[in-house]
Amino acid sequence: xxxxxxxxxxxxxxxxxxxxxxxxxxxxxxxxxxxxxxxxxxxxxxxxxxxxxxxxxxxxxxxxxxxxxxxxxxxxxxxxxxxxxxxxxxxxxxxxxxxxxxxxxxxxxxxxxxxxxxxxxxxxxxxxxxxxxxxxxxxxxxxxxxxxxxxxxxxxxxxxxxxxxxxxxxxxxxxxxxxxxxxxxxxxxxxxxxxxxxxxxxxxxxxxxxxxxxxxxxxxxxxxxxxxxxxxxxxxxxxxxxxxxxxxxxxxxxxxxxxxxxxxxxxxxxxxxxxxxxxxxxxxxxxxxxxxxxxxxxxxxxxxxxxxxxxxxxxxxxxxxxxxxxxxxxxxxxxxxxxxxxxxxxxxxxxxxxxxxxxxxxxxxxxxxxxxxxxxxxxxxxxxxxxxxxxxxxxxxxxxxxxxxxxxxxxxxxxxxxxxxxxxxxxxxxxxxxxxxxxxxxxxxxxxxxxxxxxxxxxxxxxxxxxxxxxxxxxxxxxxxxxxxxxxxxxxxxxxxxxxxxxxxxxxxxxxxxxxxxxxxxxxxxxxxxxxxxxxxxxxxxxxxxxxxxxxxxxxxxxxxxxxxxxxxxxxxxxxxxxxxxxxxxxxxxxxxxxxxxxxxxxxxxxxxxxxxxxxxxxxxxxxxxxxxxxxxxxxxxxxxxxxxxxxxxxxxxxxxxxxxxxxxxxxxxxxxxxxxxxxxxxxxxxxxxxxxxxxxxxxxxxxxxxxxxxxxxxxxxxxxxxxxxxxxxxxxxxxxxxxxxxxxxxxxxxxxxxxxxxxxxxxxxxxxxxxxxxxxxxxxxxxxxxxxxxxxxxxxxxxxxxxxxxxxxxxxxxxxxxxxxxxxxxxxxxxxxxxxxx
Length: 839
Known about the structure:
By secondary structure, the chain is of the alpha+beta class. The chain has 3 domains: 166 residues, Immunoglobulin-like, CATH 2.60.40; 120 residues, Sandwich (Immunoglobulin-like), CATH 2.60.40.150; 461 residues, 3-Layer(aba) Sandwich (Cytosolic phospholipase A2 catalytic domain). Helix content is 21%, strand content 26%. It starts with a strand and ends with a helix.
């Protein structure tokens, strides 16, 4: 189909490792439309003429500013361009023209920054104008006046033109949010010529250096005359985006680095040639340089249009396959616990999820008790998902080492955890362990990872919770769900950004045994590939999958806090600090007023903070330590209509979502922290509409307020338009919580049913089991001090006594068993709704 000069076709066999094929049905039989497409999309020529500025305020003390304009369009070029500075002038005139080749399907935002040139100190950044190229119409020329400061009548005058460009359209892959563009592979090869036999001492090494700035590899060196003789079987390779029109810089042996050249042809007579890569014919060997001892060849080829990343918002095929298998366990289990006369059909079977919150070793321990209670009620077999964060991820990763854990009695698992929770922890800091930690961290660095204190914390956790080295990996847990025999585990984290508080910038990241991804962007990688290096959706460097202890350290990190997190722990808002921690960005007027389009961004002005503001912001937002992994979104670009995409909008909640140049795809690393640094909940993956979750068992293990995280979740979902049941608790209930609350979501059609289990010691003080009162000698066992000043269950406690461990497990189990009626009521409502919905 052709529309507006753009051709599109459905992607039939993209990322075959995730099973993408011609399937057009979800696991429940509903039709679905593949969202990821291969498209042939036109490129345009953007002409930008920097004309002049007026009434620029004086940045220097003794003279007027020496102004120049920097142009930055990362979707079109790796380089920043700039005009010549105009000395000592408040009304500088430049009249300089710049050209960019832009992709019509990409969100192109041009950044025009005005600087004052300084010889001694760093150039003063006066302001930056963000201009969305989508405002321009093809074939028209406009002259814009950006009103940068109406009070001082500062303005920047720029001319724009958008024209068609010769050449075929570009092939892109997109899911409507991210765009992967065409990449090429350049092979550079040195062939040594045969020489007459010489004496050994006359042999010398010849070093060659190759550089493609903006490519994945960057710079590579090779050598002739050594043991590593460069041969035709091992050429130097560079992967680069074809649209960038990059240059190969070559430094030959004994030559000085060549001056930068923008020549559009290659010169075989040059001593150190520079070659524009777009001038190389595709698929052909081209000689770049000839010498008495060697010849230098290059060949550029297009890479296949197949990604190693799954772009899409539906569930991956492995999860859909799991759901079909899990129904064979869930349907008969529900029939049994609900005492139904007939078997449940597929469309009548609700999706039940167990959701946990964090709380260090307290949550690790209490979850064992909760799961044992659910097991005794036969409700564990009714659950399809189990989600966790922080300490509950440590419990989950222990359980899923056993491929059939939910089909067995949990006493053995609980006893094993008891042994480690009560053992002396001082051994984890012994000299032997310290040497082991150092060896493991060095190995990770050699593999190409960026290590931090969080990795060390993961190793310490390994020693606290296991006997010796644990080789278990997250992808190994596929064995525990390959028959649908256990609920699917989902681990959560949030991606954050330097210089921003967690409330201002955070993105949900989910980990399953199948894949790791950011739902906001609809981008997922295989779990075994997480941490490897990617470029434009292609796997560039495979790094061995991390052992799960390193993920546990990140999921349950205590060390990623900052000053603003501490402030938010005791206050409900960080509004007081916004003037210091948020960018000063304003919508500005422009002349002429261009025709408004649905997906265009407002023109905005950024004013950089002063030294004091920058220092204070850094002090407030810098985190003590953070886990960083290679960003698998690196190289992608944002689609021109990404802000209109319903999937992106559902999770669009950061101050940078309307600044496409600064979103996650522009970063080299993901910066991952414990989800509890935003909201202490693992519910977000369950609210993904494609998972169709009907019932959520909310197991709360938070310290302090038991209702705070739930209130925060309700507020967040309301702001985001995510379906979530209304939590209506009286003041009396908030002061004296019961063991369980049922929120059926009747006032929010489509929302899941929520069963909320706060971690409290209510009737457990007098009852050792539902309906069984404690004797006088057993009353002491019911005294579980959860949150008092002398409580053994502090979030930062890493060792319990045997008695403290046993009591917490028993409390978690009791609170489940004592509310069997509410659990059954929720399941009955869910089944009835499924049947009614089908009718």
